[in-house]
Amino acid sequence: MSLVDERQLRVLRELGELGSVTAAAEALRVTPSAISQQLRLLQRSVPVPLTEREGRRLVLTPAGRALADAAIEVETALARARHSVEEFLGRADGRVSVAAFHSAAAAFWPHLVRALSAPGSPRLAFADEDVAQDDFPPLTREYDIVLAHRLDHAAPWPRTVSVTALLHEPLDVALPAGHPLTAKPRLSPRDVADEPWITVHDGFPLMATIEAIAAAADRRLHLAHRINEFAVVAQVVAAGAGIALMPRWTARPHVGVALRPLVGVNARRHIDALHRPERAARTAVRTVLTELRSAAAAISSQAPGDTEPRS
Amino acid sequence: MSLVDERQLRVLRELGELGSVTAAAEALRVTPSAISQQLRLLQRSVPVPLTEREGRRLVLTPAGRALADAAIEVETALARARHSVEEFLGRADGRVSVAAFHSAAAAFWPHLVRALSAPGSPRLAFADEDVAQDDFPPLTREYDIVLAHRLDHAAPWPRTVSVTALLHEPLDVALPAGHPLTAKPRLSPRDVADEPWITVHDGFPLMATIEAIAAAADRRLHLAHRINEFAVVAQVVAAGAGIALMPRWTARPHVGVALRPLVGVNARRHIDALHRPERAARTAVRTVLTELRSAAAAISSQAPGDTEPRS
DNA sequence: AGTGAATATGTAGCAGTACTACAATGTCCC
DNA sequence: GGGACATTGTAGTACTGCTACATATTCACT
């Protein structure tokens, strides 16, 4: 019985529905002999007759009809399997996993939640991932979409991932409220080179800008603290432990911290959505990408005084 | 996509569950190379990657997982199909069609209905078929069980059908109440040869006994009427239109009709259940056959004064 | 850093299977 | 009884899935 296969079941079913070997053969585009042989093969696995002669035609016995009915289920399941990939790709409400580093997560995810809460929208699965720049692309193996950042002049993303540009965000200098430098509307590398710095850990994107400031000022900076998380950085800056680079749009404003634009070095970061090219074959993933772009537009224009043209 | 077959889906599913080509190969008792080739073949039909490398192992992508899930349904349906014949054979409550000629139907079917009314019993499908003797065996093509009758010396049933003997029923002479012959406890062919006869149509089983009476009495009988249905015969006999042969047990008694045993010719008929041998592979069919046998025992002993040994 | 074990993939050849073409057998209908 | 129709059997062919073996890649351990 275990060598009953789909082909034989299909033949049996056609015979049952069409009522003759010849008709089944035409339907399956083979010779009647092929049908006859498949039936003989199938019969070998079953101890009761599945077919019987009726005059010169061949028809199913009740046992044959029982098996032919089961064959319908097999074909249904196979058809469903054959369409399951398209279904998977086409589902509007599929699960979409989105990873992001902290500041992008805080800025983008609330937008996504609001925009995609209606039934029929993609179901979101968030995960925060604060990793060094090189480690963003590999995350696309695990997540459908990865929000990543890199500095203007850093190495571009590898070509194995697709990139959707979201923000080109200025990095400002964060000063404690009341610090003397807050008097200046914009700061040069020389202005800030002697202050104690709070920076990200080595390997993280913003570090390159810190190094650019040191180079432009021709000084060795004093790296007092290494803190990745901007919410913590803001607290420590406000407490007067040093100054820091902070993103203009995606970090939550802090009353004890003033932001001043930096001139003389290119202090900007790209925030991009990375994904493997084939993941965008899914409708749900494309929906989230579209929503991310419109969230980016909202984010970059949310503080009118701070938008790029005027910085 | 249409060349996705069960084998490829099975391979994909094993890969998904076991997590490596080698493990899937062991599970399916083939070499890893075979697995790899089947996966390549499957991938050819699908426009998005189903698998991806993870270190030195191979794992499913989300699309692959979607297809593997569908593969489970396919295997389930196939397993069900492979067991559907046993299920069909083993079901206690399967449908069993029973054909019978009129007097057997009237005598046996009420027993069957009473005995097999509990839930879980075979579901009965009755059909009355009053045919000539030669036409009983072919009815086994259409019905699971056929109640048929034949006379003692008639040709036996062909060996293509299985026979379950039910009754060996005496045929008595039916006389109008008050007819002079009712005075005799038993009748010889000579006693009845000059009466007007009511017989079945030519070709029907009882006809041979009529001819035997004529031969034994060396007379030509007067065949006044040809009526197959015993209920009608009884009415006409009671009305005085003639005498007739009637089965002792399976014809309903009629107040205007007296039955007298016939001696000197072998006047008995066999009532048998005929079926194709393979139909008895079904539990439900065997249940009905058993019930028919016990019904036969009840019928032949229901009128104690008329049982065979005393006739 | 290097080496060996583990894993997957490619290639060639082999074996089993499903098909076609054709012949034979059986059935229906006039 | 003859001709058309239908199924089955037989021999040969094409295809497909497998094994064996070689190769490439990754991992773990020293």
From TrEMBL, chains A, B:
PROSITE patterns: HTH_LYSR (PS50931). Keywords: DNA-binding, Transcription, Transcription regulation. Residues 4-61 form the HTH lysR-type domain. Transmembrane segments: none annotated. InterPro entries: LysR_HTH_N, LysR_subst-bd, WH-like_DNA-bd_sf, WH_DNA-bd_sf. It comes from the Bacteria. The keyword Ligase does not apply. It holds the Pfam family HTH_1. Belongs to the LysR transcriptional regulatory family. This is LysR family transcriptional regulator. The lineage of its organism: Bacteria, Bacillati, Actinomycetota, Actinomycetes, Kitasatosporales.
